[in-house]
Write a structure and sequence with these properties.
- The chain is an alpha/beta fold.
- It has one domain: Rossmann fold (3-Layer(aba) Sandwich), CATH 3.40.50.
- Helix content is 48%, strand content 20%.
- Helix 4 crosses helix 6.
- The chain starts with 7 loop residues before the first strand and ends in a 5-residue tail after the last strand.
- It is found in: Cytoplasm.
Length: 151
């Protein structure tokens, strides 16, 4: 049986340390497999409404896009610092869970999804459930959950 070669690796980034750890590990997996990393941040347009706030207006959406782009730029800077160039930034809109589990993997022919163990605080996990556990259940490709480094 041939070993799996992961050519297209998707990493969800949200600014958390767990997501940063997952991205760093994804870079190393991609390097070993001559693959590419897709650093994705998802803007959940439903979250403000669920939390009792008004829907996203264009200025809030622009702020979210700017924040997402900064996270992607940080990922690219890290990759460059370790001599790895095959990183593509992705900004998607919609459900974080669906985007990571099915939408983006289908769109980018992803064969491995890497996510940090938890990028959410306790209240968010209670309200939305664990993104990682949803991705594990719903993804049609391999999933690697990256545990915190200082555990």
């Amino acid at each position: 049986m041939d070993a799996q070669r992961y050519q297209n690796i998707l990493v969800g980034i949200d600014g958390s340390e767990q997501a940063k750890d997952a991205f760093k590990k994804a870079v190393e997996v991609a390097r070993r497999n001559q693959g590419k990393v897709y650093a994705a941040t998802i803007i959940d347009q439903q979250m403000p409404t669920m939390m009792g706030y008004a829907p996203l207006d264009s200025s809030i959406l622009e702020q979210e896009k700017d924040t997402a782009q900064k996270m992607i730029d940080e990922c690219k800077a890290y990759a460059k610092s370790v001599d790895f160039a095959l990183v593509e930034g992705v900004i998607a809109y919609g459900s974080i869970k669906d985007a990571l589990a099915t939408q983006l993997p289908d769109e980018y022919n992803i064969d491995l999804i890497m996510v940090g163990q938890s990028g959410l605080n306790a209240v968010e996990r209670f309200m939305m459930g664990s993104v990682a556990s949803f991705v594990i259940r719903e993804a049609r490709c391999d999933v690697l959950i990256v545990s915190p480094q200082d555990a």
